[in-house]
Design a protein that fits this description.
The protein has 181 residues and is an alpha+beta fold. It is built from 6 helices and 9 strands; from the N terminus they run βαβαββαβαβαββαβ. It has helices spanning 23-30, 51-58, 94-102, 112-119, 141-145, 164-168, and strands at residues 12-13, 40-43, 66-75, 78-87, 107-109, 137-139, 149-152, 158-162, 173-175. The protein has a 5-stranded mixed β-sheet. Strands 1-2-8-7 form a 4-stranded antiparallel β-sheet. Strand 7 (149-152) and strand 8 (158-162) form a beta hairpin. The radius of gyration is 15 Å and the shape is globular. Residues 46-167 form the YbaK/aminoacyl-tRNA synthetase-associated domain. It comes from Pseudonocardia endophytica. GO terms for molecular function: aminoacyl-tRNA deacylase activity.
Amino acid sequence: MSWKVLGTLDAVPAPDRPDLLAAPVAAAIAALGDDASRIGVAEIDPDLADTAAFCDAYGSPPDVSANCVVVAGKRSGETRYAACLVLATTRADVNGVVKRKLDVRKASFAPMDTAVELTGMEYGGITPLGLPEGWPLWLAPEVVAADALVVGSGIRGSKLAVPGAVLAALPNAETVPDLAR
């Protein structure tokens, strides 16, 4: 298993610890079949969930952490949502690539309360596993190419180690060139 991205933490197979996962994340992992055992989960101090604090505290390199951001834009009165997963050392190109892919005039990060309500996940723990049905999941090519990445678990009290290939195989996942800058 390539769970060493979690630094000094001891990880276990995510299906063995559903108590460390938000409900939609646990359901999504359970639906993965054999790939579920490739995902590790480790308990952390919830106050250290933000990427920089997590990496400092647990010795996880920032270049193997990925941030999942919920973006929104309106077109014809309809709000469109998507999730973007980029390495923590980069930023999603919300005003360029994301705006064009959403086909909206203006895209921005979804408000925290909205993102939490729609995903059923805690802010600071939002992850690509268990997103609302029908939402596009856009992945930076660097994410897909990674042997393993640290991502949220849906709660602030744990982190996941997930192979990029597993993320690329998620429903509605698409690799998007130039998503990150």
